[in-house]
Recover the amino acids of this structure.
């Protein structure tokens, strides 16, 4: 039986969501499930919603709080990625984001309003030795130090895409599909029995390869995530700002990497490591990537416009690139 590809597009979690499925029924049958899945995640994890579970935990930092199974799962992942990235991924960066001017949903920020004004006082760097989460999964509770405030925006988008993809693929038995949340993409089954999914990757503005077309990734099964210091950026009295905070300085990162795309089997892995490469830069980030992300592939643009292609060490590439002309290839 031939199933036609059907598409749904909507906004959630402050980004554009795209879902393409091969289904025997109309997409309208699945849209309530898909949209509610993202809506529930936003209501639970958004720091911009005072009623969210994330906001409640921030208000009660220093006290032990009961948490949902979903929050416990995400916090366990946060602990894991803190360890494997050697402290480069840290959720307790909310004060730094707000100090940089990211105090409300990004689309409402302008370069000349009061929310884009930087504060002058310095924040202490975060520890790279221990993520201060006292998580009791048996009792479904957690306690943070009283001076810690978390932002989960660096993980929950890919976690939501990954969870929805598994629901559609396993429980709803969708043989092929694509879920894209603002560039965090997971695919399965190929676009047809013989054709892969085709995913376009934007080139940053200062790429030395001045071509109008995007890089194309051909992918049957897998995931890709792109992180950039150029997309969510603004200016204030402190200069140019963006949303990728370096925990070692508690300021927007100033590394050599301005954009990184990571390809792998699991989308959360890809999103975390794309951010970490932008935060740590090529000099520190590449050895870190090689130590802990050997099954992943990366495309890294540096501030001088060069493109680095990092091949996976542990297995062959998940996908195939079209239009890729790397300046440096790391094998």
């Amino acid at each position: 039986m031939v199933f036609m590809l059907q598409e749904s597009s909507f906004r959630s979690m402050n980004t554009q969501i795209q879902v393409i499925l091969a289904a025997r029924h109309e997409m309208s049958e699945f849209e309530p499930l898909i949209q509610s899945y993202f809506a529930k995640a936003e209501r639970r994890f958004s720091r911009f919603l005072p009623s969210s579970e994330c906001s409640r935990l921030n208000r009660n930092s220093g006290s032990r709080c009961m948490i949902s199974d979903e929050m416990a799962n995400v916090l366990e992942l946060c602990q894991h990625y803190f360890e494997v990235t050697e402290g480069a991924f840290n959720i307790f960066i909310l004060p730094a984001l707000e100090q940089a001017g990211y105090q409300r949903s990004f689309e409402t920020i302008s370069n000349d309003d009061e929310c884009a004004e930087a504060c002058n006082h310095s924040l202490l760097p975060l520890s790279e030795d221990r993520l201060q989460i006292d998580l009791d999964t048996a009792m479904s509770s957690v306690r943070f130090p009283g001076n810690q405030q978390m932002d989960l925006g660096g993980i929950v988008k890919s976690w939501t895409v990954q969870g929805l993809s598994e629901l559609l693929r396993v429980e709803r038995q969708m043989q092929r599909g694509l879920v894209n949340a603002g560039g965090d993409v997971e695919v399965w089954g190929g676009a047809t029995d013989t054709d892969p999914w085709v995913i376009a990757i934007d080139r940053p503005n200062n790429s030395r390869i001045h071509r109008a077309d995007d890089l194309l990734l051909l992918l049957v099964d897998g995931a890709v995530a792109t992180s950039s210091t150029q997309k969510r950026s603004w200016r204030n009295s402190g200069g140019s700002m963006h949303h990728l905070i370096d925990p070692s300085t508690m300021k927007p990162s100033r590394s050599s990497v301005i954009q990184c795309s990571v390809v792998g089997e699991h989308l959360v892995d890809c999103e975390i490591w794309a951010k970490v490469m932008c935060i740590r830069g090529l000099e520190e980030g590449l050895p870190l990537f090689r130590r802990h992300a050997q099954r992943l592939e990366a495309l890294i643009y540096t501030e001088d416009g060069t493109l680095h292609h990092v091949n996976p060490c542990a297995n062959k590439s998940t996908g195939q690139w079209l239009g890729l002309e790397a300046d440096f290839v790391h094998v």
About this structure: The first helix runs from residue 31 to 45. Confidence is low (pLDDT under 50) at residues 113-118.
